[in-house]
Amino acid sequence: MSWAGFKKKLDRTGTKFLQTVGSIEKTVDKEFEEEERRFKSLEAKSEKLHKEAKGYLDSLRAITSAQSRIAETIEHFYEDSTDDTLAGKKYKDAIDRLEQDCREYLDDPYRQTVTEPIGRFCAYFPDINEAIKKRDKKLLDYDSQRAKVRKLVDKPSDDANKLPRAEQAANEAREIYESLNTQLVNELPRLIDLRVPYFNPTFEALVKIQLRFCQESYESLNSLQEYFADHDQVDNKVEAVLQKMRDLAICGMG
Amino acid sequence: MSWKGTTKAFGRLPQRIATKTGLRTETKDLRFDDIQTRFTEMTKQTEKLHDDAKKFRDGVSNMLNHQANFADLLVELYNPITSEEASDGVVTRRTKTPAQAMKATEEYAKLMSEVRDTILAELDSIDRRIIMPATEFLDVIKLIKKTVTKREHKKVDYDRYQNSVKKLKDKKDKSLSEEKQLHKYEDQLERATQEYDHYNELLKKELPLFFEYRVEFIEPIFECFYHMQLRIYGLLFEQFEQLAELGYFDFESDIIDGFDKKIVDAREQLEDITLFKRSKQNKKQDESSRKQSSIRESARTGSSGQVPTYSKDHIEEDDEPPAYTPTPVRAQPPPPPPVSRKPKPVRYVVALYDYDATADGDLSFRKDDKIELIKRTPDVNDWWTGKLNGVTGVFPGNYVAEL
């Protein structure tokens, strides 16, 4: 930090302290504060949205890769048995196709229409926060200059030039603060209002991607129905086989 | 290990070492080895199935949660953003979210939480019907492994007694005690042979049976998994179809094209917000004043760099890293580069902003990097070709200033 920057910081810390103890008056702009709170709420929600969007893609990938590995294993299980390899083979083909489709038609569109746009929106927030911080600092400067003027009015100095100079400084500080404040008060609502037009295309694209994903998965799996028996008896079957295995003499050594 | 077990393990040790070092020969049963390889492979496969089924289950439950949370957040975002402690007397300008959009998000959130609850409630059948049986199957495998180990031990015994008997038999002039010893070894050899044969034959007979059962076992599991998958995707599909019935979404257009068309307006308006640029512009000013000696300010920065009030055109052309959509722009091949009027050996440009490659063939650089210009077009909104640190690639022309 530069020397000037350090000194400014020190002065502002002093002003802040004097404000808390009440010896310097604090300017309050309710309108700004309201907008700031709304902005903070937008920021928090958008960032959470970004996180959920990323998590969604990750879980989709986890699902598709787990199911393709399962298909592989199942095919392997069938490999050395003579009958009924068809279902395993057909199933593996279908899952492989889905996996490939996902890579081609899901990953990129999702990134381009969902995660990146939301991320880009969130990338604006640091700028705003910087502007808010700057506004707060300039406000402190203004408050402190104004307090100096007041002091000079209450206790006129011997130097007649002091008061006009302080007034001039206070005016300048006010101008700087006000221009920043007005900009924020005008533009924060604009940003907040833009959230719906901005997120809406993402919303639509997301729904389209999701629909496509489950439709394709459903339809391609559904076309394999004929290879699969009804699964009502499944539980008993599994239990029966496991029992047969346990009955083998090679399992009796425990 | 029991005391007995320890003694046995100890007794087998010399034989193991001897076979390892190749001093003594080991009985080989190729058919058994074959079966055992298959058995090991199967164990691995089953473990994999077990783990992947878990991953699948967790993936589905994460997906359902993420999509429901996303939908809820969207509803929150579409609802008017207010601060909790709304102060009276302050008139805030708020644009209401179009009723249709609001309805669509609410419907979306409702359907997503419904489908989450429905599927999550059924998801434990993956546990019950796939993961648990696979665990039990692995337990069976563990039992069989014990038998395999036992056979292995018996084989070591068999080999070592055979060895001892052979050694003594080969010896001429046996002492009395050696004769006795031989008898003892022969007894032991006989027992070891029996035991080894027993386990060896048993495994050779029953492991193939077990392999057959395994197919019987995997079939219902497979069917079950298939039906579960079908059900999950079916339920999801149903919900999204319901959502489509709202008529709010345009399912005709391509996903990316539709998105690109719709986002343009909002993106432009967002870029109009001067708050975002102010900081960047200031930074640029600082930067350029610091580096004035080395960088001659280009006409572009000079024209608007210091002017606090700017028109929209200036902003878009000059101050903000311009919004660009890589794909559509790149789709049109850039016009042929004009012949350079002043043919200089090497020309350089300086990066005004950071640029990260968004596609293969893009040149990434950081602000203030000096890039060798290989090919430029008259249009700054075009893609130019440059070279940096030995890498050649294209980049948006409006990200750099010419020296």
From TrEMBL, chain A:
SMART domains: BAR. GO terms for molecular function: lipid binding. Residues 25-52 form a coiled coil. Transmembrane segments: none annotated. The keyword Coiled coil applies. Pfam families: BAR. Signal peptide: none annotated. One of its GO terms (biological process) is endocytosis. It comes from the Eukaryota. It is found in: Cytoplasm, Cytoskeleton. SUPFAM superfamilies: BAR/IMD domain-like (SSF103657). Its main location: cytoplasm. InterPro entries: AH/BAR_dom_sf (IPR027267), BAR_dom (IPR004148), BIN3/RVS161-like (IPR046982). It comes from Gigaspora rosea. One of its GO terms (cellular component) is actin cortical patch. This is BAR domain-containing protein. Keywords: Coiled coil, Cytoplasm, Cytoskeleton. Residues 17-237 form the BAR domain. PANTHER family: BRIDGING INTEGRATOR 3 (PTHR47174:SF3).
UniProtKB/TrEMBL annotation, chain B:
Residues 291-309 have a biased composition (Polar residues). Residues 279-343 are annotated as: Disordered. Gene3D superfamilies: Arfaptin homology (AH) domain/BAR domain, SH3 Domains. This is Reduced viability upon starvation protein. It comes from Gigaspora rosea. Residues 331-340 have a biased composition (Pro residues). One of its GO terms (biological process) is plasma membrane tubulation. Residues 17-253 form the BAR domain. Pfam families: BAR (PF03114), SH3_1 (PF00018). Residues 344-403 form the SH3 domain. It comes from the Eukaryota. Keywords: Coiled coil, SH3 domain. One of its GO terms (cellular component) is medial cortex. Residues 151-202 form a coiled coil. One of its GO terms (molecular function) is lipid binding. PROSITE patterns: BAR, SH3.
